[in-house]
Q: What sequence folds into this?
């Protein structure tokens, strides 16, 4: 009775993985082809295997600076989001205070707001304060949806730690900052990892705000790619190579947080 | 969780940094939107107060109605496909060992791809001349073209979203499944429960919480979809795949119609806020009833 069911499940899983990986495979293969080959013949495997497209990206400043810009604002965003979210999540998980539920709900609404709604005012606001086309502008804009998310995840993890630990520490004479850093933080390490992972992910994949708030100096890789898409003669091969390179950081990060992902989803209730 | 949290108003100090951060990027912009929505901005110096005129105009906008209907149809299609598929996928994933890790990483991969790259991937996958999918469908004799045919474009955007986001549903369900103690399955085996009974009476109730979150997250996120169709179809052909965010961006940045765009933004925001409120209350209820079920 168990065997056929197992086989059906394996088959289904294999079919889904095929569906999931074929498009990625196609892009990866395309990144090793020449433009002539892409347009003239139809091959499942590159006939003339070339690193040329990657070479273009790593030597052309308009390409590789896009990656650097993206990594800078994603980094600023992730660190800031987790740092401000930590104390707030502690407050929400440990105390009740005036308006706590409303504030929490208000935070969540920001996660649910379409970035398109804030597009126009962000543009005006950052122009006024002179932050346009800086990494800080994009990082700040992304805080809008990453801070609520980080608070939400961390609150879930912190509520899983018994409050007796806090009380014992206070009785032992620990001050709040010292308790938080030396005792509490190590306990929720996994939660911090998961929160940072999600902040990284949502900042890395976002295009609309990142594209609108930058023009030259902080232009992210995602915006550089749309420019190539809309150009008249399409450079498919370079585009594919750039696409492959944008997947790599995510794949690396997910490999490291892999043991916590399932747990993070359950506890953090993302 | 049974204990009552102590009241401590000083906890506000801990929340303050978050409030400052989010207020700067949410409250100030929101005030600007409100400001624009009631004014006609002719030039930066000349602006006229127009009251609710823009709101009236936006609500009567036929194109907007079209975009809203398309948006709702799309969001429901997304849920109808992704939720069952995600559950099936979670049930098929191996539970432990290196296989579980490998499958987990492979499945989660599509979630970490920048959204415009998702569009690009499907562009070079679906095109009839250079794409694997497009070319294969042409070979089968199906006249498929996502740039020329409205139905094909719509189906391609849907397939892309399924490809992109089903893993989120699957991961949530997978996390829910992992939290079921082995004892439940042992009891079911002793009772001679069928595979379906195990699913219906053990796994589904245990997944209820995460499933609810998955449904609502997917609904919200598909409701604000922008980047993927923007790259893949640019909203076309015609406006077959122009959804709400796309339409709003066209108005705000493309035509720089500040007043109507701001009014539209506010209406859009209110729709989301309403849905959010339902979500939050739903989740709170699911959370508490889940706790009561624990032995």
A:
């Amino acid at each position: 009775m168990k065997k056929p069911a197992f086989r059906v499940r394996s088959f289904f899983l294999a079919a889904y993985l095929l569906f999931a990986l074929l498009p990625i495979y196609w892009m990866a293969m395309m990144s090793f082809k020449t433009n002539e080959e892409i347009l003239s013949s139809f091959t499942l495997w590159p006939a003339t295997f070339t690193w040329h497209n990657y070479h273009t990206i790593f030597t052309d400043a308009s390409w590789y600076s896009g990656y650097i810009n993206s990594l800078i604002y994603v980094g600023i965003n992730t660190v800031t989001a987790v740092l401000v979210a930590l104390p707030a999540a502690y407050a929400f998980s440990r105390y009740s205070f005036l308006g706590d539920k409303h504030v929490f709900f208000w935070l969540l609404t920001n996660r649910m707001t379409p970035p398109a709604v804030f597009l126009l005012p962000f543009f005006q606001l950052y122009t006024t304060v002179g932050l346009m086309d800086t990494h800080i502008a994009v990082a700040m804009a992304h805080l809008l949806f990453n801070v609520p998310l980080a608070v939400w995840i961390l609150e879930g993890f912190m509520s899983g730690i018994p409050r007796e630990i806090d009380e014992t520490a206070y009785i032992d004479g620990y001050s709040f900052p010292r308790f938080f850093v030396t005792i509490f933080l190590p306990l929720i390490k996994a939660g911090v990892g998961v929160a940072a992972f999600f902040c990284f992910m949502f900042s890395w994949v976002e295009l609309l705000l990142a594209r609108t708030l930058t023009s030259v100096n902080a232009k992210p890789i995602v915006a550089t790619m749309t420019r190539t898409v809309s150009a008249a003669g399409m450079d498919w091969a370079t585009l594919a190579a750039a696409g492959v390179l944008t997947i790599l950081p995510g794949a690396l990060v997910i490999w490291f947080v892999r043991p916590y992902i399932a747990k993070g989803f359950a506890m953090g209730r993302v | 969780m049974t204990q009552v949290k102590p009241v401590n108003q000083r906890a506000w100090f801990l929340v303050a940094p978050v409030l400052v951060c989010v207020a700067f990027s949410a409250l100030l912009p929101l005030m600007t939107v409100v400001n624009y929505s009631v004014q006609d901005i002719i030039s930066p110096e000349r602006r006229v107060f127009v009251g609710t005129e823009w709101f009236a105009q936006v609500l009567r906008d036929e194109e907007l109605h079209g975009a809203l209907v398309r948006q709702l149809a799309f969001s429901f299609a997304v849920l109808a496909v992704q939720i069952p598929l995600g559950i099936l996928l979670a049930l098929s994933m191996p539970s432990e060992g290196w296989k579980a890790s490998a499958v987990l990483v492979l499945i989660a991969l599509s979630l970490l791809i920048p959204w415009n790259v998702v569009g690009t991937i499907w562009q070079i996958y679906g095109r009839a001349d250079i794409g694997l999918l497009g070319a294969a469908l042409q070979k089968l004799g199906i006249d498929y073209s996502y740039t020329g045919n409205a139905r094909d474009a719509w189906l391609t955007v849907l397939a892309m979203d399924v490809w992109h986001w089903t893993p989120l549903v699957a991961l949530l369900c997978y996390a829910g499944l992992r939290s079921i103690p082995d004892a439940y399955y042992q009891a079911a085996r002793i009772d001679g429960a069928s595979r379906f009974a195990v699913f219906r009476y053990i796994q589904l109730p245990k997944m209820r919480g995460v499933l609810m979150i998955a449904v609502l997250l997917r609904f919200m996120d598909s409701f604000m979809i922008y980047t993927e169709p923007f790259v893949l179809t640019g909203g076309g052909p015609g406006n077959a795949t122009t959804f709400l965010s796309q339409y709003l961006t066209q108005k705000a940045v493309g035509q720089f119609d500040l007043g109507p765009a701001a009014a539209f933004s506010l209406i859009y925001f209110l729709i989301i806020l309403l849905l959010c409120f339902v979500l939050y209350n739903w989740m709170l209820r699911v959370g508490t009833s889940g706790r009561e079920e624990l032995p």
